[in-house]
Amino acid sequence: MTPFLLYSDGEGQIFEDTSLYVVGRSGWDAMPIPAEDWIELPDGGNLYELPGRRGIGIDVKTGEMRLCEKGWAVAAFLPPAHTGFYLAAYETLDDAPTLPLFCYTAAGWFADKFFVPAMRIEQDIRQECSGYDERKIEEGVDLLTKAHPHNRLVKHLAEKCALTYNCPAARNYFMGRWECPIPTSPACNANCLGCISFQPEDESIVSPQDRLQFKPTAQEIVEFTVPHLETAPYPIVSFGQGCEGEPLLMWETIKESIIEIRKHTQKGSININTNGSKPDAVEQLMKAGLNSIRVSLNSARKDIYTKYYQPNNYQFEDIVESLRVVKKYGGWSSINYFVFPGMTDSIAEYDALCELIETTGLSMIQWRSFNIDPDWYLGKMGVGDTGEFMGMKQMLELIHEEFPHVKFGYFNPPMERMKNFDVDFAHW
Ligand code: SF4
């Protein structure tokens, strides 16, 4: 099977071009996609028209690669729990606008369905879009804001996160289940090119969320997280969210909160999503009772990491040390690994990732789609040639072969899953 290319009329209508088979992109290169790499666009996925961009395809008659002049290129946004193998392939016209911070996976049409080159990397169902119940979320918002009338964080999670940004984690909190978010930090010590909570005024893209404007107290944190840990199924409370800066800059408050939480309940898991910049602070949090960490990175190569994160007062080595500290204290360590076909599956990246896994004793890789305009990213990073690459599917297979104990997924596991990763999700 080879799907046909999709194009849009620039007014949101999408059509298939049956004179062209769709191709994919890795790095700067367009290429055919193996038949076995395609799956139906999963529920919760979206299609985007890409203004100022012409799709690249293979002529069904001549076999030549050429542009589709019928309209703008189209890409797919993969829903959570899925990892894309190829980017959408297109030629960008001079005056094309920078694309917003979403992922742009290849997409095609076959047998009256939309297809994408991707796989489901995570069986956990916590962010299935069909699992959200708007009425229950609103009832939860009403109930919990009344239960915590003076809590600025619960107010923020309700008004901003759940009801404005549609944050899946906040919506789960108000449905009384699974992972509950705890944003804490208005500031950050990195300057990621694709930051989702802050973008410089003069930048051509905007951040989809506003950064938290206050520093919560430990009391505010404890007040709503203890009841969640006590009552939710497979409960996790997670510091470090998309609507804040770097939580480790608030480590003293987080430490105080963890100690206080554990005075009230031993249930569930306490996790931190972080840039991993302060290993000493991570050690303090592990001593206080932190259970797991997730460190975000676009690359396991110091130079590629540094160009993207533009860190203030920390180095790549610090994030490696933070992962090692968690392992030393018997915690669960994950990386939030931004997948960019052509970069992530390059030979150089493969070697660097193997070294990172060996050095840190990593527990899990969360293979996340990189939400960024591919041309803009490679341009900003000054990457003219991404070097030799093996294909994302092969990268996943080789890492699994080399390190079978390293778990693959998309979400932070609850305590039950850290103990037995292959739990059956049917009864979640
Ligand atoms: S570490 Fe997070 S908050 Fe800080 S700049 Fe990067 S994406 Fe933004």
| Shape designation | globular
Task: Identify the CATH architecture of the largest domain.
Answer: Alpha-Beta Barrel
- End-to-end separation: 35 Å
CATH topology of the largest domain: TIM Barrel
Q: Count the DSSP helices.
A: 12
Secondary structure: helix percent: 25-40%
Task: Give the number of domains.
Answer: 2
- Ligand identities: iron/sulfur cluster
Keywords:
eleven-stranded antiparallel β-sheet, globular, TIM Barrel, 12 helices, 428 residues, binds iron/sulfur cluster, seven-stranded parallel β-sheet, alpha/beta, 2 domains
How does this model look, in words?
This protein is an alpha/beta fold. The chain folds into two domains: 4-120, no CATH class; 129-424, Alpha-Beta Barrel (TIM Barrel). Helix content is 30%, strand content 23%. The chain has helices at 134-147, 152-162, 168-174, 218-231, 251-264, 279-288, 302-309, 316-328, 347-360, 374-381, 392-402, 415-419; strands at residues 4-8, 14-22, 24-26, 29-31, 38-40, 46-50, 53-59, 65-67, 72-77, 82-84, 87-88, 90-92, 108-110, 113-120, 179-182, 236-239, 269-274, 292-297, 332-339, 364-369, 407-409. Strands 1, 2, 5, 6, 7, 8, 9, 10, 12, 13 and 14 form an eleven-stranded antiparallel sheet that branches. Strand 1 (4-8) and strand 2 form a beta hairpin. Helix 2 (152-162) crosses helix 3, helix 5 (251-264) packs parallel to helix 6 and helix 6 runs parallel beside helix 8 (316-328). Bound molecules: iron/sulfur cluster. Iron/sulfur cluster is lined by residues 188, 190-192, 195, 197-198, 245-246, 275.
